[in-house]
Design a protein that fits this description.
four-stranded antiparallel beta sheet; 14% strand; Alkaline Phosphatase, subunit A; binds calcium ion
């Protein structure tokens, strides 16, 4: 891989420079823009002004090196013939090894929070490179406006109220990812995969985390895991609350994203069986508060009032680069499906941006649920391509199973569908419409459902609705409910139907008996 060699060479130079001259600041061109409208967020081609970003490395435990920024991928995105997404051959074909799966998940990173998706200032060179080598999804959704539910959907393919993780699990709730749920790592283990989860978990309530009576990452299909319950504590700097395979890691030195990437590299290099395919979850804590940003990344935005947040995004992007390098070094990048996304929208008061979308974290408007999405799978995904088909985090379960020719579970509803047809230009055929319910939303946007270009947003008690033609009105500025009563009724019926089935299938008692009421986002009403 020429690109890989070039990157590694630049990496080495960058690390050397950083080591001998840590205080020397790279020459950065910050491209200014007055407003970030849709044009800026267009995913047609990679037309951003080339960014110059330099090295800013700081050794952390277990990590050989890291750099703040790398050039965009050198591959000529436009020239490659369009490869057809296809499944791997069945197990037993020794000549064609099954693909590895890496899901890299940011925490609270908004649709507008990267150079890759049009932010004029934030440096995300590794995400740029990933997009240059793969596909950028312009309508990638999280399954919820908050953490735990969204994460549960990625692992199970099921919308959160259906799988039981109906709320974020920050206190002492009954809810958790039940042992009865089927996760994709579990399915992959059945056909010989090794599995690893590093970073945030957040699929247990606080009193359940690392308590054997409740299912832990190891009970949900992960051979090796190093996780926190929720946030890195006390912050991203020197977090002391990682648990590795049930045992406290203790004090660390470094920043969370780099510590996570270092553990990933260690697992790839030293722990896993290189003869087996693998599934790896890299769920970093950045840019969720409390934010702590390496000064090396802050310095990239020296003087800007939002330098801490923007540097935090570059910090997580740097970790993405470390993971990409580790895959290269292991010689497995060409046979790895690498998907980057976020678990929900951003928090504006901490510095995040939706890129113009309405709402933010917790909202069922686009700002809470439309997130960055980039995938790379060499030989299967056209480099530098764009996918405008809406996809959602819960699609990853079906996508992964499709890649390895495993059937979907037949005994339960799977909300997500495989993304592979969409990557080949064929719209996904959904049996269950895109659906969101986020318990801590504002009253007026508690639920949402999308079919085609139409999206309906409902209030907490399902009595008031807004209708948007989302392709045209991506900012959700024009409520068409009054002028399109028939379409509104059609989507209302679909919404009621989906919700009724979810109430029947999910552990309804968990949300009906919730003891802890949210401090934000009004009341819990059903
Ligand atoms: Ca989150």
């Amino acid at each position: 891989m020429n690109g890989t060699k070039k990157r590694l060479k630049l990496l080495s130079i960058a690390c050397l420079l950083a080591t001998v001259a840590a205080a020397e600041r790279p020459n950065i061109i910050l491209d200014m823009a007055d407003d970030m409208g849709r044009q800026d967020l267009s995913c047609e081609g990679n037309d951003r002004v080339a960014q110059k970003a330099g090295a800013a490395a700081k050794p952390v435990e277990g990590a050989k090196s890291e750099v703040a920024a790398k050039p965009k991928g050198a591959e000529n995105a436009g020239d490659a013939d369009k490869p057809k997404p296809k499944r791997a051959d069945n197990a037993g074909d020794a000549d064609k090894p099954k693909p590895n799966v890496v899901i890299f998940l940011a925490d609270d990173m908004g649709w507008g929070d990267s150079g890759t998706f049009g932010h004029p200032l934030i440096k995300t060179p590794n995400l740029d490179q990933l997009a240059a080598e793969g596909v950028k999804f312009t309508q990638c959704y999280s399954a919820s406006g908050v953490c735990s539910p969204s994460r549960s959907a990625i692992l199970t393919g099921r919308t959160p109220y259906r799988n039981g993780v109906w709320r974020h699990l920050s206190g002492n709730h009954d809810a958790h990812l039940r042992a009865s749920e089927i996760t994709y790592p579990e399915r992959l283990k059945e056909i010989g995969y090794e599995t690893c989860h590093v970073g945030k978990w957040h699929l247990n309530a606080r009193h359940q985390f690392n308590v054997p009576e409740f299912p832990q990452p190891g009970d949900h299909g992960y051979d090796h895991w190093m996780t926190t319950h929720n946030n890195a504590s006390p912050s991203h700097k020197n977090p002391d609350n990682f648990i590795r395979n049930g045992k406290a890691v203790g004090a660390t030195e470094g920043y969370s994203a780099q510590l996570v990437a270092a553990e990933v590299a260690r697992w790839l290099n030293d722990i896993r069986d290189p003869k087996k395919p693998f599934a790896l979850s890299v769920w970093v804590h950045e840019p969720h508060s409390p934010i702590a940003t390496d000064p090396a990344f802050m310095d990239l935005y020296d003087g800007h009032e939002n330098a801490k947040y923007m540097g935090n995004i570059t910090q997580l992007d740097n970790a993405l680069g470390q993971v990409m390098d580790a895959l290269d070094r292991a010689g497995v990048a060409d046979n790895t499906f690498l998907f980057f996304t976020s678990d929900n929208g951003p928090v504006a008061r901490f510095g995040g941006t939706t890129g113009g979308l309405r709402g933010g974290k917790r909202s069922s408007h686009e700002g809470g649920i439309r997130v960055p999405g980039v995938a790379r799978w060499p030989g299967h995904i056209k480099p530098g391509s764009t996918c405008t088909t809406p996809v959602i985090g819960s699609d990853l379960f079906a996508t992964v199973l499709d890649m390895v020719d495993l059937p979907l579970p037949a005994d339960r509803t799977i909300d997500g569908v495989s993304m592979l047809p969409a990557l080949n230009g064929t719209p996904a055929k959904r049996t269950v419409p895109l659906f969101w319910r986020t318990h801590v939303s504002q009253v007026g946007d508690r639920v949402a459902l999308r079919i085609g270009d139409w999206k309906i947003v409902g209030n907490d008690v399902l009595t008031e609705f807004q209708l948007f033609e989302i392709e045209k009105d991506w900012k959700e500025e024009h409520n068409l409910a009054a002028t399109h009563p028939e379409k509104t009724e059609e989507l209302k019926r679909a919404l009621f139907d989906v919700w009724k089935k979810i109430e029947t299938e999910g552990p309804k008692e968990w949300w009906l008996t919730e003891r802890q009421k949210p401090s934000k986002g009004s009341t819990l009403n059903y």
